[in-house]
Every structure is written in C-alpha cells, then in structure tokens.
Design a protein that fits this description.
By secondary structure, the chain is an alpha/beta fold. It folds into 2 domains: 407 residues, no CATH class; 95 residues, no CATH class. Strands 4-11-8-1-7-5-6 form a 7-stranded mixed sheet, with helices on both faces. Strands 2-3 form a two-stranded antiparallel ribbon. Strand 2 and strand 3 form a beta hairpin. Helix 5 runs parallel beside helix 13.
Length: 542
C-alpha cells in the first residue's frame, strides 16, 4: 500500500510539474522506500542534522597532539604528571580543509564543472550527445559558436565557459552562480582541479570521506581534530575508508551554533565573573581539587580505581581549565561573528538550516578549532524528471561553498574545499523550459534529470590562497579524463574507478598544499597511486 501511494505521488508530481521547494523531499518510483538515516538524507527527508552533542569534560579526553597553553605553572606540571596534552596546534598550522558531501548523487560534471579529454578541461573531446547526457543542450555546449553551431577551440571562443574561479565552470552553472554570489573578495584568488571518478549510486557505502586522513597528514585543531555535520563515524553521509578510521579522531558533530559554543563552554562562570582571568583561576582550582581527591581515592568515578581512569578524569578537568584560559571572554558563537554576518544575514541564519550548518563548521575550521570539517547536504538524488529541482539545490550548495571562501578571505586564511557526491545523474535530453521566478531558478532550456548514472561522476576541489592566486602544476586542471560520450575513462587515473584511491588523491593534494608531499608515502603506505604519485598533485605548496 505504501509503495502504491509513493508511486501515486510521483505521477502527480510529474503531471503537474510543480516547483519543489529547495527543502522538499524527493519521491522516486524506481527507488526502494527509504529505511536508513542515509536514505532519508539523500532524498531530502532529513537535512543532515543529528542528535545534539553537548560540551562537557569527558568529551575533551581524546584530543591528542596539542602543545602546552599559558596556564599556571602547577597546572602545566599536573598535566605533565598524567601525560595530558594541553594547548593549541603543534608545529606549523596546516591549510584548513572543508568537504561538502552532497548526498544522493548530484550532477557535478558538465553542467557545473567543465570536463574534457586527456588534455584536461580545455580538451573538447565530448560530443554534443555527450553534453546532452550531462544536461547541456546543443546550443549551450561550452566553446560553441552560437552562429554556426560548430565546435571551436575554446581558446578562440569561450561561449558558456566561466573561469572566474580558475577552474572552469559552465557559465550557466547554478552551483557557480551560488559560489560567486557569496564568495566576495575570494574570487580571483581561487583555483581548482576536477577529478573524473565513478562511484556507486544511492548508497552511503562509497568510502568518499577523507577527514580521517587529515590527522595522519599532520592536521590538528585547538579544540577537536575533526568536525562533521552528521553524528556518524565519518562525520558525513558517505563512509570513510576503513583503513584510515581511528576512533581517537572521530569527528565531533557540529551542525548548529550551539554545538560550537558547547565545546568551549565554561557554564555560568562568564556571566558571574566579568574578568576572563578569574574564570581561568576558578577552573584551575577545580582541576587542583579534583587532582587531590583522586589521589586520596575520595572521588567515585563509577568505574574502577584504576589509575588510567583517574588520569582521564584529571585530564578532563585540566583541559576544561585550558579551554577557559584560551576562550573565556572570546566570541565563539557563529551567529554573533561579525565576519560571518557579512556573508549571511541574521535572518538567513535563523531561517536556513544549511546556512547555520555551514556557518558553524566554517567557524570551527577557519578559526583553527578543528583541522577539517565535513558539511553534509541532503536531497541531491534529484532526478525528478525536471531541471528546476536540481538547479536550486546546486544553487544553495554553491552559496555555502562561496560562504566558506569568503570567510577564509575575511580571516586572511588559506582554504581547501573538496566537493563530492555518491554517484551522479544523467539527462535524456528533454529540455525543461521553465524560467526563473524570483529567487527560484528555472530549467532555462537545460536537460531534465531523469535517472542515476555513475558514468558521469566527478569530484572537484578549490584552493583559496590570500597571498595570491594558486598556480596549477598539472595541465588542464584535471586528473583523469572523460570519453566523447561523457563517460569517465576508468583507466585514466587511479581515482577514476576506485573511491579509496580517490580519497588518497585528495589527501595527496592536501599534503602537497602544505609542503608535505615527500611524506605522503610514509604517511599512507600502500596508497595505490604508484611510485610517481606526484603527477597527481594539482598545486605546489602554498
């Protein structure tokens, strides 16, 4: 009965061609009923939010690789006594990293990021029929002369090609429109690379998520090492490669401002004590008292009197004192951050879950509280027999990507953004002639998305450098290639047909940006990219 009702809803939607809200769930007659949380996310029934995880001293235990903070000498001594690391980043800070997990199988190639043959983005190997499969009609093919409809050298005629971000996008890309709308001063200081790559459709079993690789590559944060907008093992919708998972670095859930403030919360002390130094002094006293009580055995941990457990409790209080020292009196609420309010209005943050989520994650990552974060956006399984639905979801993803770039520019911090999705979609070539209506994009004559098709898949990353536009070190800003019929050539790179190796390719590029490419093989033994792996590094160190 439920399946019949679902089919009826699909037929009703297609017959009336109604405009779906950007948050509306997607009903597909050819899909099984959603049963898991990930199913609900990719079809837009859930926005990616999970249970709220509050701050507390026990959440501070697993946060390794930190240097000493400027606390009282005896507090530092107590921390050393129980092997408890306090403070901020060790060594040189790494390039902040944010990935966007577009759950459901979004279109990225052709209609958004341009792709080509062995020569890279400018290699016009893809046929008109191939572009049609990627949702681009014949009169909107990049590099096309609209007078005689013949393919030209893109260097001579760049119709429908936009290179404002260095990495070339289709000029009518909804995702590009969103990025440029919010990116602000970052535009002109960005470049990127596209990676043709297949992955399974409609499944979270693709190990797309690279976050666990960041600590292995030396990344760390001053509060937690990793954050993700989902309370999952990977921090996102897609899984992490099993060989990279380390429970010590499990991403902390952050998808709203209260998640950020909760991590550095010292309760009501900041309301009672106006001087941040007084807050730190109180927290230090709590740590000293707890340390003495545990030594005397007067505190019941609820577990055992084992010294390891005692040391963990001591370390928790010491870390709370350390956090008070570093954050009492500082503004950590994303909704009150004056730079974030230059990008999102207070009304937008109040009304849009995806904007709040993005603001919270970028606050954590770009302020150094976390080495990297994952933002999951649901509802990208948008082969709904029209084009408008996908266009408006791509537009909002672009706005969130652009917001991260803008915030990095305002903070004068570099940033690597990685965008991926589980599978992809294809068009049957039938145009959606709907027009824009206020803030709602129409199909504008582009091909309707009518089914899943992993052969058109790709991922891409953008690099922002406040010191100057990054210079690509590979031709064509592309790793791998597409064939004339717009299919990924699966032998064109290790990443093209193996999601684990796609993750390793992204991590290689992260290490290259940080000047650590020579350490890649030792950090990731058995990486699968071959002895000449440097050929897959798209940019030199920033």
């Amino acid at each position: 009965m439920a399946r019949k009702q679902n089919n009826k809803l699909v037929r009703r939607f297609r017959s009336k061609k109604q405009t779906l809200s950007v948050d509306a769930p997607l009903y597909h007659a050819d899909h099984a009923r959603p049963v898991s949380r990930r199913d609900f996310i990719r079809q837009g029934f859930l926005g990616g939010a999970a249970t709220v995880v509050g701050g507390g001293v026990f959440s501070l235990f697993a946060s390794p690789n930190k240097a000493m903070a400027a606390l009282s000498a005896d507090i530092d001594s107590l921390a050393t006594d129980v092997n408890c690391s306090l403070g901020g980043l060790t060594g040189a800070a790494k390039v902040p990293f944010i990935c966007f997990d577009l759950a459901g199988g979004a279109n990225l190639a052709g209609s958004n990021v341009l792709v080509g043959g062995s020569g890279g983005q400018n290699d016009g190997v893809i046929s008109t029929a191939g572009y049609s499969k990627m949702g681009v009609p014949g009169d909107m093919v990049p590099g096309l002369d609209s007078t005689n409809f013949s393919l030209l050298n893109p260097s001579v005629n760049n119709d429908f090609v936009n290179d404002d971000l260095g990495l070339q996008f289709h000029a009518d890309s909804a995702m590009l429109k969103g990025i440029l709308e919010r990116a602000g001063a970052a535009v002109g200081l960005v470049d990127g690379c596209v990676i043709p790559s297949r992955s399974d459709n409609d499944t979270s079993n693709n190990p797309h998520n690279p976050l666990y690789g960041l600590p292995i590559a030396g990344g760390s944060g001053t509060v937690v090492d990793l954050v993700g907008s989902r309370n999952s093992e990977s921090g996102g919708n897609s899984m992490a490669p099993a060989n990279l998972i380390d429970p010590a670095f499990r991403p902390t859930k952050v998808d709203r401002p209260s998640d950020v403030t909760g991590m550095v919360d010292v309760g009501e002390l900041t309301a009672i004590l106006s001087n941040p130094a007084d807050v730190t002094a109180v927290m230090e006293s709590m740590a000293r008292i707890t340390h003495k009580k545990l030594k005397l055995g007067t505190v019941n941990t609820g577990l055992t009197k084992d010294e390891l457990v005692k040391d963990l409790v001591r370390c928790g209080y010491l870390k709370a004192a350390d956090l008070a020292d570093r954050f009492a009196g500082k503004q950590v609420d994303p909704t009150l951050d004056t730079d974030i309010l230059k990008i999102f209005t207070a009304g937008e943050l109040a009304a849009d879950n995806e904007f709040r989520k993005t603001a919270s994650v970028m606050k954590m990552v770009l302020n150094g509280y976390s080495a990297g974060g994952c933002i999951t956006m649901g509802g990208y399984d948008y082969h709904t027999g029209d084009r408008r639905t996908g266009e408006n979801r791509d537009l909002r993803a672009g706005r969130c990507i652009g917001a991260c770039l803008n915030y990095a520019a305002l903070l004068n911090k570099p940033l690597m953004i990685y965008v991926f999705s589980d599978g992809s979609v294809a068009s049957n070539g039938m145009p959606d002639e709907s027009i824009d209506n206020g803030n709602i994009l129409g199909g504008r004559g582009k091909g309707q998305w009518t089914g899943d098709n992993s052969s058109t898949g790709c991922s891409y990353f953008l690099v922002f450098n406040p010191a100057g536009k990054p210079t690509p070190s590979i031709p064509g800003r592309q790793i791998g290639r597409f064939s004339a019929d717009a299919s990924v050539v699966t032998s064109s790179s290790p990443a093209a047909n193996n999601v684990n190796l796609l993750v390793n390719t992204v991590l290689l590029n992260y290490m290259a940006l940080n000047g650590d490419i020579n350490q890649f093989a030792s950090a990731f033994p058995g990486h699968g990219l071959g002895s000449n792996y440097s050929q897959y590094a798209a940019f030199p160190a920033l």
